[in-house]
Amino acid sequence: MARHVLYEQAKERVPGLSAGLITEMKRAIPGIVIEPGDEPDSYEVQTGCYVGTVRLDFGELCILPKLPIERVLFLWSYGFDPKHWRDREIDLGEAPDLISALAHAFASELESQLRSGFMEDYERREENERAVRGRIRLLEQWGNTQRRRTVVACAYDEYTVDILENQLLKEATRTLRAFLEVEHASARALARCAQELLDVSSIRFPTHRIPEIQDRPTNRRYKRAIELARLILSHGSFEQHEEEARALRTRGFLFDMNRVFEEFVRTALRRALRVSKSAFGSAATVPEAVDLHLDSALRVRLQPDLLWVRSGCLCFVGDAKYKKLAPSYMPNADVYQMLAYLVGSDVDTGMLIYPKSEDEPWNRTIEILIDGHIRRILVRIINLEGTSENILTEIDHLAEEIRAITASALEGLAESNQAR
């Protein structure tokens, strides 16, 4: 199978694309731009912010991230579950892409644990049996009697391998195997793991509702493999309709870096501020922001990435932007968007957070005077090229600045109320 390698947010030349393949690529990879090239039968392909692997009729298309693979996995895993991110700092091997890195890490961990013994636990069962087992479910048994069924409705605990933890591991194994060639070293290891998991039920988990696993003595040894499995199964970062998303899941394993960056910034700031998801989060998770609108007619809804409700008052609004920021100017669209957030939420100071690029080494503040009222937009940069500890240190500094902003807002509100 032919393999084409592209880079995130970069333009590359891909020869010999038919109209059907161009349509397929555009449908499978959000944000991709394909234009005719200078040479006959060649096209200029520019990717957006999605990275990963997609299998199309003409071969495999691999989109590599701008950041090192281990840094992408750190941002992703921390945003997904900040409590266990340190547990996932494991050997990624000589992985050329995200899929290979995940496959190597997961296969190595899972195969190592399976050698030491299978994971089993008690699972609650409610079945119709030929003989009494456990306790009788009286209501269901009454129905069996009325229908003259020669079975007994029983409820019992069965010691089995068919438990949720193993179901997650099996589905993650299946998902990774679908994107690896048979001769791939990790594919062979995953095939051995799949053979061990044959007696476990195959369950497809909704991408955005991966079940959490409670720590128990029986699964503690498998914790790292389970968390990796949950990360793998949460790979879908699409916003399409259900039919479209289902089709894409069969075609590719992609990560939306916009969403990865946004989730990381939101989760890391919330953890640094030590507040709950209902107090600090997006417009979807903060109850006070559900009906946040720009206009009094409630027609233009506002959905900032970052909101903080402190002491019952909406005190902070911000947005995370995974894009390159030029040194000489601010993108007007970002300024207009943040100004709309500030006006709609009646907040004086907001924050735009970008990843650091080679051309953007500094922070800045934009002040906008409207009808005698100054709105301040703080532009802040996070260096994603540093170590995970350095990145989290920068997040801590941003959290302190946000805490000071909200404290000032609450103080101003208190003075205003006293003046009244």
Descriptive key words:
single chain; 420 residues; alpha+beta; 4 domains; six-stranded mixed beta sheet; four-stranded mixed beta sheet; 37% helix; 23% strand; globular
If you had to describe this structure to a student in words, what would you say it looks like?
This protein has 420 residues and is of the alpha+beta class. The chain has 4 domains: 1-66, no CATH class; 67-120 and 161-235, no CATH class; 121-160, no CATH class; 258-419, Trna Endonuclease, Chain: A, domain 1 (3-Layer(aba) Sandwich), CATH 3.40.1350. The chain has helices spanning 19-28, 69-80, 98-115, 138-146, 164-177, 185-196, 223-233, 242-249, 257-273, 332-345, 388-419; strands at 3-7, 11-15, 33-36, 42-46, 50-56, 59-64, 121-129, 135-136, 152-160, 252-256, 280-281, 306-310, 313-320, 349-355, 364-370, 373-382. α3 runs antiparallel to α7 (223-233). The termini are far apart. The relative contact order is 0.09. Mean pLDDT is 82; it is low at 236-250.
| Strand arrangement across the biggest beta sheet | 11-12-13-14-16-15
Report the strand count.
16
Overall structural class, as computed from helix and strand content, comes to: alpha+beta
> Which architecture name of the largest domain does CATH use?
3-Layer(aba) Sandwich
3D shape: globular
Low-confidence stretches: 236-250
